[in-house]
Amino acid sequence: MNNRFKFLARSVTIGCALVLAGCTTNTKEMSGLYDDGRFADAAIAGDEAFEVLRVADGSRIRGFKNTEDRDMLWLGMEKGKILSDAGRFDDAVDVYQHVFSVQDHLSDMETLFAENPLDGSSWDAGQFLEDIGQAVMGADQTTYVVQPYEAILLGSYASLSEMMADRPYYAAFARQSMQLQGEWRENLQLEKVGERRTPIKAMDDAMESDVGPDVDLGEFSIARILNFDQFSLAKSSMRSVVADAEKAGISSPFVPFASLINWAAFTRSGAGTDAATALRGFRDFSGRQVLADRLGDLAAEGGDKVLVLVGAGRGPTRDSFSVRIPIPIPDVGNGYFRGVYPILDYRGRDTRPSSITVGSQRLEIIDSVDALATQNFMIREPELWWRPTFRGVTRAVAAIIAQAVDDESDSLLDLIALGANVILAEAEQPDLRMWTSLPALHYAGLVDRPADGNMVITITSETGTGTVSVDVPE
Q: Fewest beta carbons less than 10 Å away: which of 75, 255, 350, 448?
């Protein structure tokens, strides 16, 4: 019998407290107001619920009130975006800067790819069960890791807020964002992300090898779990989102919209070489050659131009489903498998724009956050779907082995072991954390500055047409 399972068998009856220690920071009030379009109210709710905590001299942020340490980076991204959309750019920059300084973004990005290779045949079961914590602690109890597309947007949104607040460090944020784009492109070594091949047979073989010949799991298998309809439905939905984005030319995982913000920051700061690099990235990532050419020829073209950037619609969030399977082993004991799995929820399709215009000029869609989040989810399938499966299997097998060490059937120890298995399994919650205050789509266009300085942006969707007026400075 594998030594790891022997240890877990001794531990499973006392591990319940480990999963009852806390839960994810609750942002529902702040996020709900934001989703309703009440940006100022959402920012105030964030002030009250997640007050910014500063060091003694007030020079920098040290955290947020009522926020679990493991959720700090996630909460900071949500809070920063909400503050910026409420027009509180100075506050937003401070929050963005704190998140950016805390996360080890380059290291996290490399780790993300190294631990989740696209080739399923290189998968190693050992990485999923490194210690007992993996067997009892749900993913929502782990420290949030900022994802590559989130880190890139974090730097660019910080740069944009810095420019809007007329603060001096916008080019530094843009440079970090552009560096992240390059790192991510180098690590991914792909221009698009496809669906994973799940190595189900290798997983079953690894499970049987770890359990050993002493325990026969009967018809129970990894294949039985991962072939549930919910997985195929989720994959079908993700395939459709990425295919639609590819057809529209907005599926690049390297965030073309960030390149536009970075170009604006470098152009404003007079960093011509960096501006040219950002524009080349935009051209490569977006395929929007006409807009890229116009930006490149801006100095020669003359006239008073305005780069219009629009984030529209609500980006994806997460939902979840559970798989429950009893595992009776004749003459040995009973186990209980429960796996809890996040899936993406694509919100508000009917409210997304069919067109955005300024005067007679139609803005172009630059990228899709739906596609960014979906491709990231595909890359992370081992972490999001395979790991919970092995965690549930480990708990169930540990309980069965705990019962097997006692020759007496239905003894008190057997009942305790099974009860602990069920409690641990049902206590696990899905990890629903992701940056949900992002828009669904990014638009952009280069237009003439209105003579009166008042720009009217017209937005049309299935639910109707509306306008937004913006005062444009000289």
A: 350
